[in-house]
């Protein structure tokens, strides 16, 4: 059963060895040259799996990876039967501030070890039984550069602003969590602010 068909990937809920799993298949883009397309797709899958695995080593929850099929452009992973943080933050959920703090802490942990997620939106974070799971690392990269990490935070901020404008003050809580986990992260926050003011005034 297809549960989501994005621009680049199809997400299916499937039975696999008697479990319910998610399969994420990158589909061919007709407008891209075939060889380039193949390279991009397999690159993104490799990146996604690599960054998921590295994040898990840092103690961040990610879905368990059951299978990676580079020829079929497919990742088979645990079905995290929870809710998108995007929806949780727009619901009556009680401890939104605590949730935001933990989002910041996890992102801080990643950044402290040079993992830029690449698509930090609240649709790419799931909440299940009080645990946060990060998904969709395919646009991420390994980098300790302030510029790269700053862009990562900038995207988080922009997404937070558009999806959660009513509770945008909680973004400060995200940043507090970030600094608590990544003591040297203030440069990155500064970079995020620079990027924002550039966008606004130039
Ligand atoms: N392991 C999972 N467990 C539960 N739901 C998932 C899982 N993986 C993906 N989903 C659901 O599918 C949606 C899309 O998945 P994902 O973010 O990985 O793909 P995408 O945004 O289409 O891909 P990409 O940005 O890599 O092209 C998520 O927002 C989530 O609702
Ligand atoms: Mg996504």
Helix and strand topology:
Blueprint (H helix, E strand, L loop, with lengths): L1 E4 L3 E8 L2 E8 L7 H24 L7 E5 L4 E5 L4 E2 H4 L7 H17 L2 E2 L8 E4 L2 E4 L6 E2 L3 H18 L7 H11 L4 H16 L1
Antiparallel strand pairs: 1-2, 2-3, 3-5, 4-5, 6-8, 7-10, 8-9
Bound molecules: adenosine-5'-triphosphate and magnesium ion.
Adenosine-5'-triphosphate binds next to β2, β3 and β5.
Structure notes:
The chain has 202 residues and is an alpha+beta fold. The chain folds into 2 domains: 2-78, Phosphorylase Kinase, domain 1 (2-Layer Sandwich); 83-201, Transferase(Phosphotransferase) domain 1 (Transferase(Phosphotransferase), domain 1), CATH 1.10.510.10. The chain is built from 6 helices and 10 strands, in the order E-E-E-H-E-E-E-H-H-E-E-E-E-H-H-H. The chain has a 5-stranded antiparallel β-sheet, with helices on one face. Strands 6-8-9 form a 3-stranded antiparallel β-sheet. The protein has a two-stranded antiparallel sheet with strand order 7-10. Strand 8 (125-128) and strand 9 form a beta hairpin. Helix 3 packs across helix 5 and helix 4 (146-163) crosses helix 6. The radius of gyration is 17 Å and the shape is globular. The termini are far apart. The relative contact order is 0.13. The mean pLDDT is 95. The chain binds adenosine-5'-triphosphate and magnesium ion (MG). Residues 123-124, 136 line the site of magnesium ion.
